[in-house]
Design brief:
alpha+beta, Rossmann fold, 29% strand
Amino acid sequence: MEKHLKVSRESTLRNLYSSKKGLIVHCSALSDDGTVFAVAGIADTGKSTLAKRLNGIMTSVNDDMNIFEFSGHKKIKVSTYFTQAENQGYHYLINENVTGFLKAVLFPVKEYEKESCIEHVKDKGYIWKKLLTCIAPPIKDEDHLFPNYLEMIDKLTVTVDFFHIYHNLKDPAENIVKLLRSIK
């Protein structure tokens, strides 16, 4: 990564965590008329695949990294701090002009036999474990920000619902969108 980009991203991270305003999350974020669904997890679980399949029916905010910003009572604004200019030859879906409010966080699971489906996840310990794999930690040597980081993860766990999304690539994109829109 170019030095000026690294400095810019570290500055964003430092500002979010020191002010307790938000988190940077490794996820694909999809907007459906201002309602955002975040597909979060480690590499190779299908986050970008889902974003690419659903882009056009929904609008991709970014299929790699997004900002979750706490804004008001029980609302989390989702946006990206990446721009197409900073994409550096990668093929991310980035739409820097799209934001929305987070409806749910989905942990993807590749499904090969059954139809795509969603499952509500309520186990807070499990949710924490999954989130710790995909939320950017404070910058090295800035351990004093860890309490804020942990506090904001806790706030996230009580602000939105969490689901597994078992996604079968054989299923039409419209079916997966219907599943997402069924989340209340």
